[in-house]
Design goal:
- The complex is a heterodimer of chains A (376) and B (303).
- Chain A is built from 13 helices and eleven strands.
- With 376 residues, chain A is α/β, with parallel strands linked by helices.
- Chain A folds into three domains: 67 residues, no CATH class; 141 residues, 3-Layer(aba) Sandwich (Rossmann fold); 123 residues, N-(1-d-carboxylethyl)-l-norvaline Dehydrogenase, domain 2 (Orthogonal Bundle), CATH 1.10.1040.
- In chain A, the strands form two sheets. In chain A, strands 3, 4, 5, 6, 7, 8, 9, 10 and 11 form a nine-stranded mixed sheet that branches. Chain A has a two-stranded antiparallel sheet with strand order 1-2.
- In chain A, a hairpin with a 5-residue loop joins strand 1 and strand 2.
- In chain A, helix 9 packs across helix 11.
- The longest helix of chain A has 29 residues.
- Chain B has 303 residues and is of the alpha/beta class.
- In chain B, the strands form two sheets. In chain B, strands 3-2-1-4-5-6 form a six-stranded parallel sheet, sandwiched between helices. In chain B, strands 7-8-9 form a three-stranded mixed sheet, with helices on both faces.
- In chain B, a hairpin with a 2-residue loop joins strand 7 and strand 8.
- The longest helix of chain B is centred in the middle third of the chain and has 29 residues.
- The chains are: A alpha/beta (376), B alpha/beta (303).
- Chains A and B meet through strand 11, helix 9, helix 10, helix 11 and helix 12 of A and helix 8, helix 9, helix 10, helix 11 and helix 12 of B.
Amino acid sequence: MAKILMVKASYSNHYLTTAAILSPPNTAISASKAMSMCSSFCPRRPISFRAKPISCFPIKPKFWVHVKAFSSQDSTSPPKDEIPARIGFLGLGIMGSPMAQNLIKAGCDVTVWNRTKSKCDPLISLGATYKSSPEEVAASCDVTFAMLADPESAVDVACGKHGAANGMSSGKGYVDVSTVDGATSKLISTHIKSTGALFLEAPVSGSKKPAEDGQLIFLTAGDKSLYDTAGPLLDIMGKSRFYLGDVGNGAAMKLVVNMIMGSMMASFSEGLLLSEKVGLDPSVLVQVISQGAISAPMYSMKGPSMVQSLYPTAFPLKHQQKDLRLALGLAELVSQPTPIAAAANELYKVAKSRGLSDDDFSAVIEALKVKMEQRS
Amino acid sequence: MWHSHCLVERICFDPRNPSVREMEEIGFLGLGIMGKAMSMNLLRHGFKLTVWNRTLSRCDELVEHGATIGETPAAVIKKCKYTIAMLSDPAAALSVVFGEDGVLEQIGSGKGYIDMSTVDAETSSKISEAITSKGGSFLEAPVSGSKNLLRMALYEAALPAFDVLGKKSFFLGQVGNGAKMKLVVNMIMGSMMNAFSEGLVLADKSGLNPQTLLDVLDLGAIANPMFKMKGPSMIQSSYSPAFPLKHQQKDMRLALALGDENEVPMPVAAAANEAFKKARGMGLGDLDFSAVHETVSSGKGSS
């Protein structure tokens, strides 16, 4: 029975391709041979794929082989470290759970922790190990990921009592994929690195579905060698990754992107409501927009449900508002006026006060509607 | 009451095609950025055009490509069965119709007037009433990028021309709806351009490479043609006008007026309008609307 070796190669930080290589059983394929086989079969061009197909071979993988040695094409010199054998995952919410699941399905050895233990069950049934604190997870793993909801939780999990930092040491790495402000990221980085371990901030662009489909975009900064080591893992969970330099740069990029997104959603909401009030069909507005220069996937995806006043949660409104608040903080640090983002932020605050924190951020449209019932 | 109607099959632009032959001489009033490009397009597809522009010299290039000049709007209407108008704002649209030697002097039964200017619903209704009371047919058809939003009986007859000019048409019902739809779309576009500008500048001021921001945006849920097209030139502070800022601000103002009439809160659009106003005050009105970027980036310490 032949084993199939799955190798994901990245020719640059942005472009990915995947190859399946048939190997006779019990043969260790050298990484460089695997890479050269990739080069000869896979074109050097950006490929964006919806699911996780094998782009170069028609054969479906039946088995995964653990790759011991791996060289990444995009570094200046191939790193001597092996691909991390034991992966930790802290935080199994809307994003963390599918991300961890993708790692397990790709054949990784994953250990998990979550504040609410029951959220770990689906992962455990897929083969993950459970530990009862971030400290124990970090201690038993080579690379530990953290996906928490906000700066407070991120700091607590990393630096708190029984936090990950207590279990870190030289030779280990901590990759924080939470979205936080630069100061928080630097604080966590300092704590982690003081143990001798490496740190990488790596917030993602993309919500629930891209997380499930392994189509996230990683905006990383920090220790380059950890970026190189973790690369194959990021490639399992995502479709592209950027290395942006010093800690703080990844956080800033993420906040800028989400600031634009939050403003766009607020403006789109104004347009939908206005069109309805002046006697147009908002569904037609969605169609018209999809034909022109401002057509964005977000509008086509969310527009139809917004017209129905439905807001199934892919990205909780409270997190969008948190991101806007942090982005405004970043703008204040560099003394930049951001009137549009500020106006949009107010709408999200109104929506939160209406109890829509856990709805999808598209529920911000409700903030524009007149609230008729009075709560006593 | 409305109904939407997606564009029918593409009509072959063979001048031997009877419906195209019927449109023998088309009139075109207004040869600005849009009008000139649209007229050239029609000429290239074999239509015969009679053109008029307030500044007659702008007709020259079109004459070289086979168009005839009409001395006044009335002269154009007299000669042509169908006339398209592409004026810059409500005042110009009204003056061409109601002014001396204007459209009304020659419009009548058997003639059609298709107004593609972006105006408010009231202006459109005024023009419509005046035209139809003289026996003419009226079609309001403001364009959105490469799209036409239109209505009425002229729709069928005008389809060959619309098909040349645009890629998809929507039939929206009563007069005023096309104008409104256009304003709503442009309102969102104006707010988006402001949000984009804020993001580009914040990225730059935070020590990030703005081009990298463009790359990231292009991969995700908020990727759109406008960011892709305008982003690179904005980073270079280059704003060659495709859509003049003063017209974008006009549209935001009209959209806010619509919101005002209907008591719709629009805080983001209001903030965006202020930014465009500021840009006009800085003398950027004739540049592309992406020049609103300068209102965000022109602060102390910006690169």
